[in-house]
Amino acid sequence: xxxxxxxxxxxxxxxxxxxxxxxxxxxxxxxxxxxxxxxxxxxxxxxxxxxxxxxxxxxxxxxxxxxxxxxxxxxxxxxxxxxxxxxxxxxxxxxxxxxxxxxxxxxxxxxxxxxxxxxxxxxxxxxxxxxxxxxxxxxxxxxxxxxxxxxxxxxxxxxxxxxxxxxxxxxxxxxxxxxxxxxxxxxxxxxxxxxxxxxxxxxxxxxxxxxxxxxxxxxxxxxxxxxxxxxxxxxxxxxxxxxxxxxxxxxxxxxxxxxxxxxxxxxxxxxxxxxxxxxxxxxxxxxxxxxxxxxxxxxxxxxxxxxxxxxxxxxxxxxxxxxxx
Length: 325
Ligand code: COA
What we know:
Layout (H helix, E strand, L loop, with lengths): L3 E9 L3 E4 H5 L6 H8 L3 E4 L6 H16 L8 E5 L10 H9 L5 E5 L5 H14 L6 E8 L9 H4 L4 E10 L4 E9 L7 E2 L11 H5 L6 E2 L1 H23 L8 E4 L4 H11 L10 H4 L4 H13 L8 E8 L3 E8 L1
Parallel strand pairs: 4-5, 4-6, 11-12
Antiparallel strand pairs: 1-7, 2-3, 6-7, 8-13, 9-10, 12-13
Helix pairs in contact: 3-4, 8-9
């Protein structure tokens, strides 16, 4: 397989900051509860007229600039999102039109919080097969539009944002190994029940608040720890590497305690973990994309480093990717 790597990264975060103290005024919660149970201190909230694609476009432009590539040279655009602008058309085609990436094939994927790693691995396969050369992958979410702002068990967890990366053949380094897993039997643990073909929008679905995120947090917590540890282990084993060789571990940012528990199972030093959950909360597919961008831009990840992306999300879906930067 030819070497394929990430040649540019970008991010976009809405300006509006919603702190835990702001949330204390909305629901029966406290900064102390949120920080100790999740590690989250604040999150970003998109403007009312700012859709997922608006954020995706800005992150994509930043990634293209970073990769020193023009939109016309992009062959493939994959947007990972669970909060698209609308049922269809896809966010990816809206991004394609805005960027004037005329040549690109564009589609969305639905793999919740694992979406960015799923998109990366899909792009890698297309490039490895020789079908396409330059791919733009984006994780973009406006989760504030799916959250019940009267439900303290979920509304404190999520935020909005977008991250992007350009994936292309590289002369040196690049993706070393990948691992993906799915288990649809756990699909009921995290979902937005209505608005699809099972429960189309109606007065009843609105009255019952079925268009908002429903989550069984406790159950998910345990599965997330197990699956994230397993995914990173399998990808590292496939790469012929151990945790000692990892320079930067970039996990999905759902809960600081999940991340620390997964790292403990992996026997991974905590100083190798990149975390920004305190600033942004859980932005689903955008979390890993933004964390990767920030770890590179802050020089936390340097040339030649071994980076592990490790994700878990609704579906249930999970995965990991080992990259030599
Ligand atoms: N503020 C104050 N109290 C809250 C609260 C809030 N925002 N949310 C829940 N509580 C209360 C609960 O009502 C419960 O009270 P009770 O004991 O009187 O019933 C208590 O806190 C403990 O709730 P519990 O759900 O057991 O807390 P927890 O330690 O499991 O933490 C989560 C809850 C959601 C933070 C945690 O389970 C989690 O992060 N789960 C995984 C979520 C996840 O990863 N989702 C996305 C997957 S990608």
